[in-house]
Amino acid sequence: MIRILSPVNGLNEVEPLIEAGAEEFYCGVMPEAWKKQYSNVASPNRREWVAANLKDFDTVKKIAETAHRKNVRVFLTMNALYTEGQYREVESFIRSAVDCGVDAVIVADIGLLLSLREMGWKKDIHVSTGGTTFNNETILFYRELGAARVILPRQNRVNEAAAMAQQNRDIEIETFIMNSGCMNIDGFCTYHHGTKELKRPFWWNIPKKLHCDYYILNLMKRMPLFLRQKVSRLIANSSDSACFLPYDIEVKSVSASEEQKQRLHSNLRRNFNMFTGFDTCGVCSLYDFEKAGVASVKIVGRNNPLFKKINDVRFIRACLVFLREKSPSREEFVDFAKQEYAKVFGFSCSEWCYFPAKDLEIPAGEM
Q: If one looks up domain 3-181+280-359 in CATH, what number appears?
């Protein structure tokens, strides 16, 4: 059965999230020494904002001890791509992870994956979405290198993810389920993030710690679509993520018709803005993921306020309980999920989906 994987960003969050229904946790650490040497832009775990990271491994140890008392596992994110010069610090991170008692590390760097056993790592290894797993051959590749779980990129369709889960029973498959629906493929992305925090670390961290981005984007979600897109592009100038900047777009293709150019231009402007990464949801796909044997669904948002994390967990938990106890049809499940969404979050589902509705029908023979 599917487990709910929640972000955790402080010891105070552990027990409330477990009470809400979290069954696994993941967290990241950015020690001051790492930030000073490499800057926050070169985060050790693909979260470039200090506010989205724990400061030390002592906190990780306390989180793990508290979670383990409730039989909840804790995973440490080590899913950046590292330079040769960083490996001494990376090895130190792994030794600290062993001492903290975390249950798995999440990695994307193949060099680190190969080195973990030499470092004395005897627990699980999870391959990050940065490992770009789009087919069974890639799953087999990582399994042979010692991976116990593979986290699929956001861009896999429902039928693809479900088929991979069913056809690979000897390795766990994890999918994303809520928040941060980036249009780019993590493992191929070369955009810089966190640059304004690099320039103004103190002042930029204040709104991050106060979760201002969450409240602004939550307000935008209540706007009409046409207004939301305009406001999103206007405020993108303040973003420290290069993919959200309001680029001028010109389609250069010689072979494309004017209609195709306009459609591509419109698609790029619509999908790359501040709003596209906020509150994306894939809960309707739980109907197929549960049947296929997906092991875990991941909530994104380490820096989200605690009440948002709790609501995310409660929402997913309620949907899974309904699915398991009522054995609904797909249509009944989707209707319940939308009603529960409105009840938990206070506004109706806007169908900002990880997995479009047309992908929810799985062709016969693929399951």
A: 3.20.20.70
